[in-house]
Amino acid sequence: MKDETCIFCKIANGEIPSKSIYEDEEFRVILDLGPATKGHALILPKNHYADLFELPEEIAEKVMVLAKKLGSRMVDKLHADGLNLVQNNGETAGQTVFHFHMHLIPRYKDDNQKIGWVPGKPGEEELEETQKQIIYE
Ligand code: AMP
Ligand code: ZN
Question: How far is CA 92 from CA 8, 65, 95, in A?
């Protein structure tokens, strides 16, 4: 399941060189070329899934296990103070490469990066309305 036109398919499968920090049968993890901080890495499945919604559950589970293992190691080896996991789906959400990837972003005191949002101030009714829309029972 590769997409001939997808750069992350080519990188994940070794057809385009990258700064790889981990590889197994299903994944490659590479350093981001435009890092938010030192060590910013991307977990790439070798198969092509455009986003989280296309990702099979067993791959999704493995992504989180890898994020835990590699994230801990990065924090340790790079003497980072924290770690953000970021995963964008859809252009509106900031996705620019349409091959699923999970960002591992080590954080350092005074790194001057901002990964966040402006908090809203919903009233009780609005929260209840939203809850009704998305509750999963
Ligand atoms: P996103 O905005 O979540 O789709 O993230 C795409 C990320 O891929 C950005 O952080 C880019 O810097 C990174 N990126 C794009 N092309 C490459 C590449 N050839 N090698 C490594 N990282 C890349
Ligand atoms: Zn791809």
Answer: 20, 27, 7
- Return the sign of the alpha-carbon dihedral for residues 88, 48, 61, 132: positive
Sign (positive/negative) of CA torsion 27, 61, 42, 53? Answer: positive
Q: Is the overall model pTM greater than 0.90, yes or no?
A: yes
- pLDDT interval class at 118 (50, 70, 90): very high
**Over the chain, what is the mean pLDDT?**
97
pLDDT at 2: 82
Ligand 1: residue whose CA is nearest its atom 1: 95
Residues at CB less than 6 angstroms from ligand 1:
7, 18, 30, 32-34, 88, 94-97
